[in-house]
Write a structure and sequence with these properties.
48% of the residues lie in helices and 10% in strands. The chain has 6 helices and 3 strands; from the N terminus they run H-H-H-H-H-E-E-H-E.
């Protein structure tokens, strides 16, 4: 896998450990009430997918399912979850199959996977006929310095 890290990717500052990792989703789970079983299940499924670390696109699909069901509730807790996902998953784009993959940050403003894909494709400078592609991968874990 050829990852080209751009300056914005390398400049992400470490966060408080209570707002990163699985504890971020646990914070959202702790806010859910008794009548929010569907949300609880969606959040647990997202937690499992992220812990598994094999299918970044499935994680994003689950994130958007959870977002749709939250419907604006638990805003701060879900914002932290979105930021955690943004630190774990990156988009890779290329204008055609012969071009190298370019790594991009995930935008935070998408509410559906198709919006996310379109936003990522918009970052490409497409000239002439092209068959642009987008894929989602987990950010490589850099060794501690």
């Amino acid at each position: 896998m050829n990852l080209t890290l751009t300056a914005p990717l390398a400049s992400i500052a470490p966060l408080c450990p209570f707002h990163d990792g699985a504890a971020t989703l646990d914070g959202l789970l702790a806010e859910l009430g008794v009548g929010e079983c569907e949300l609880f299940d969606l959040a647990l499924d997202l937690r499992s997918l992220l812990a598994d670390g094999r299918d970044a696109e499935a994680c994003l699909v689950q994130l958007f399912r959870l977002r749709a069901c939250l419907d604006g509730r638990h805003y701060l807790a879900f914002y932290r979850v979105r930021r955690w996902v943004q630190r774990r998953i990156v988009a890779q784009v290329r204008p055609d199959r012969t071009a190298p993959w370019i790594t991009r940050e995930l935008p935070l403003d998408a509410a559906r996977l198709d919006e996310l894909v379109n936003s990522c494709l918009a970052s490409l400078d497409l000239a002439g006929p092209a068959l642009p592609r987008v894929r989602f991968t987990f950010r490589p874990i850099l060794p501690a310095s």
